[in-house]
C-alpha cells in the first residue's frame, strides 16, 4: 500500500517536471533517440525554431543544421562527442523553419540507464543571436578604434618626419643656392659642411625608424664604449645650452661591449637631448659608464653575467608613472607639436634590444630621470687594430645602379678613393662588362633594379667569376630584403645612404 502511494507521488512529480520543461519558452529543451531522432518538443523550441511538435517529432535533428555543417558531418560528430565524453557544447548557426538563421548555444547530454545503456540524448538549445551580434559589433568597434589609433600614430609620424625632413631639405637646398652664387672658398666650405651634416641627420632619422622596428641591420663589434663616447664628447656638449652642464664619469678598465658604434652614438645623444628638454633652461646632466655583474632577471629578462652600463641622469621635471609606462612607445612625446617625433627613446630601446641588452627607466616628478642602458660585456676583447691596406689604385671596380644620379655619385666616390672605375646601369650590361674586362676585382651593385636585380646579378656573376668580390647596396633593410630575396644573405651588404667612411670600411673588409 505504501509502495503504491510512493509510486503515485513519483508519477505526479514526473508529470509536473514534464509540464515545467514543456512550458519553458526561453530554451529549446527536447529529447533525441540514440540515433538523433526528435522524440519530445517543448514550447521554447517551437517559439524560436518555428516547428509545431507534429511537424518535428520523428524527424532527425540534423535538419536544424546548415547545409555546410551537415556536409562536414557536424550533427553526427555532436552525438558521438556527447556519447564518448559525457557532454557536447557548441555555438554556431542553426536554421529555423522559415529558412532564416540564428546563432545557437547548444548542449547535448547522453541519457543512460542503470546498466549504462544509452537511452537517448537531452538537447538544450538557446537563441543567443543578439549576444553574438553584440559581440561582433564590439569587435568591429575595437577594430575601428585600432584603425583610428593607427591612423593617429601615422599622422604623428608623418607630421614629425615631414617637419624634420623639411628642415633638412631647406638646409641642403639653401646651401646649393649659396654654392651657385658664391666663389668664396670659406663660404663654400661652410655650405658643404652644413649640407653634409643635414644629410647625415636625415640618414639618422630613417635609422631611428628602422632601429625601433628592429630591422636596421647592426654591425656588432667589440668596442671600448668609453672611447666611443669620448670621440663625440664635443657633440654631446654642443647639444646643451651654456646654462646646462654635462659631466662624464667613466670607470677605469671597462671591459669592451658588443655594439654597433654608429648606432650607439645616437643613443646617448638622444638621451642628452631628452634631458635638455626636461630641464627648464638650467640644469645638470650626468653621463656615467661602469661595469656591473647581474644575476638572472635582475634587470628585465637579461641572463646573469657581466654588462657595461651607460647611465644618463638629468635634474629635470621627471615623469609621472603614466608617462613612464608609455615613454618608449613610438610616436609618444610630451613635447610641443613640431618639437619632436617621439622616436628618440624608441630608437634607443630598439638598438639596445638588438644588442641583446636592456633599457631601464627611473624617474619621479620633480626629481629628474635616469635612463640606464645595459650591453653584454666581452670577456676577452681583441683590441688589436686592423692594419691599413695599401693603395686601391690598382683595383678595378664595376659599379651598377639604374639611377644615374646615384651612379655618378658612386663613380666620383670610388674614383676619389683611387679605384679604376667601370660602370653599368643594368644587370645585363654589367655581365657584358665583366666578360669584356676580366681584370675587375669588385662588383658593387644596387639591389633593386628593373629587369635583373642585384641579387640575380650577383649569383650570375659569381657563377662565371668565382673570385669576384661582390657588394650589394640598398635602401631597404636586410630583413625585408631577405624576405623578398632569400639569397641576399650570401653577399656583403651596405645600407644606403652610405658615407665615405662606411664605404671604406666595407671595401677594406673584402
Automatic annotation (TrEMBL):
PROSITE patterns: HIS_KIN, PAC, PAS, RESPONSE_REGULATORY
Domain (Histidine kinase): residue spans on this chain: 160-379
Catalytic activity entry: ATP + protein L-histidine = ADP + protein N-phospho-L-histidine
UniProt domain PAC: residue ranges: 88-140
Gene Ontology molecular functions: phosphorelay sensor kinase activity
NCBIfam families attached to this UniProt entry: sensory_box (TIGR00229)
Name of the protein described by the UniProt record: histidine kinase
Amino acid at each position: 500500500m505504501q509502495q503504491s502511494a510512493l509510486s503515485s507521488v513519483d508519477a505526479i512529480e514526473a508529470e509536473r517536471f514534464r509540464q515545467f520543461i514543456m512550458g519553458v519558452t526561453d530554451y529549446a529543451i527536447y529529447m533525441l533517440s540514440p540515433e538523433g531522432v526528435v522524440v519530445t518538443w517543448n514550447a521554447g523550441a517551437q517559439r524560436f525554431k518555428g516547428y509545431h511538435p507534429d511537424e518535428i517529432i520523428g524527424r532527425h535533428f540534423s535538419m536544424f543544421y546548415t547545409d555546410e555543417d551537415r556536409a562536414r558531418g557536424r550533427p553526427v560528430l555532436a552525438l558521438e562527442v556527447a556519447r564518448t565524453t559525457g557532454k557536447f557544447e557548441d555555438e554556431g548557426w542553426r536554421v529555423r523553419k522559415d529558412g532564416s538563421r540564428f546563432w545557437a548555444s547548444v548542449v547535448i547530454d547522453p541519457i543512460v540507464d542503470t546498466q549504462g545503456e544509452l537511452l537517448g540524448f537531452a538537447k538544450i538549445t538557446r537563441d543567443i543571436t543578439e549576444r553574438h551580434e553584440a559581440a561582433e559589433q564590439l569587435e568591429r568597434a575595437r577594430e575601428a578604434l585600432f584603425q583610428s589609433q593607427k591612423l593617429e600614430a601615422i599622422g604623428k609620424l608623418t607630421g614629425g618626419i615631414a617637419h624634420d625632413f623639411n628642415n633638412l631639405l631647406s638646409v641642403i637646398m639653401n646651401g646649393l643656392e649659396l654654392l651657385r652664387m658664391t666663389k668664396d672658398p670659406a663660404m663654400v666650405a661652410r655650405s658643404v659642411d652644413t649640407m653634409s651634416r643635414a644629410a647625415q641627420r636625415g640618414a639618422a632619422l630613417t635609422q631611428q625608424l628602422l632601429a625601433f622596428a628592429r630591422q636596421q641591420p647592426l654591425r656588432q663589434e667589440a668596442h671600448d664604449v668609453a672611447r666611443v663616447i669620448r670621440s663625440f664628447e664635443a657633440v654631446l656638449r654642443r647639444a646643451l645650452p651654456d646654462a646646462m652642464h654635462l659631466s662624464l664619469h667613466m670607470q677605469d678598465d671597462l671591459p669592451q661591449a658588443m655594439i654597433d658604434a654608429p648606432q650607439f652614438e645616437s643613443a646617448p645623444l638622444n638621451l642628452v637631448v631628452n634631458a635638455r628638454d626636461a630641464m627648464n633652461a638650467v640644469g645638470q646632466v650626468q653621463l656615467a659608464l661602469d661595469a656591473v655583474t647581474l644575476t638572472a632577471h635582475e634587470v628585465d629578462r637579461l641572463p646573469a653575467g657581466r654588462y657595461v652600463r651607460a647611465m644618463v641622469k638629468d635634474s629635470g621635471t621627471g615623469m609621472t608613472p603614466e608617462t613612464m609606462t608609455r615613454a618608449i612607445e613610438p610616436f609618444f612625446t610630451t613635447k610641443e607639436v613640431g618639437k619632436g617625433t617621439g622616436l628618440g627613446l624608441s630608437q634607443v630601446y630598439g638598438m639596445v634590444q638588438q644588442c641583446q641588452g636592456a633599457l631601464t627607466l627611473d624617474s619621479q616628478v620633480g626629481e629628474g630621470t635616469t635612463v640606464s642602458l645595459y650591453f653584454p660585456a666581452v670577456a676577452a676583447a681583441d683590441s688589436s687594430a686592423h692594419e691599413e691596406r695599401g693603395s686601391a689604385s690598382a683595383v678595378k671596380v664595376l659599379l651598377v645602379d639604374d639611377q644615374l644620379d646615384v651612379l655618378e655619385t658612386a663613380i666620383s666616390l670610388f674614383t676619389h678613393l683611387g679605384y679604376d672605375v667601370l660602370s653599368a646601369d643594368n644587370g645585363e650590361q654589367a655581365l657584358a662588362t665583366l666578360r669584356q674586362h676580366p681584370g675587375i676585382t669588385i662588383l658593387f651593385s644596387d639591389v633593386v633594379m628593373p629587369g635583373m636585380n642585384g641579387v640575380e646579378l650577383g649569383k650570375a656573376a659569381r657563377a662565371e667569376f668565382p673570385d669576384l668580390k661582390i657588394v650589394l647596396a640598398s635602401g631597404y633593410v636586410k630583413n625585408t630584403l631577405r624576405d623578398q630575396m632569400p639569397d641576399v644573405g650570401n653577399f656583403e651588404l651596405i645600407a644606403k645612404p652610405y658615407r665615405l667612411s662606411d664605404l671604406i670600411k666595407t671595401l677594406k673588409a673584402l
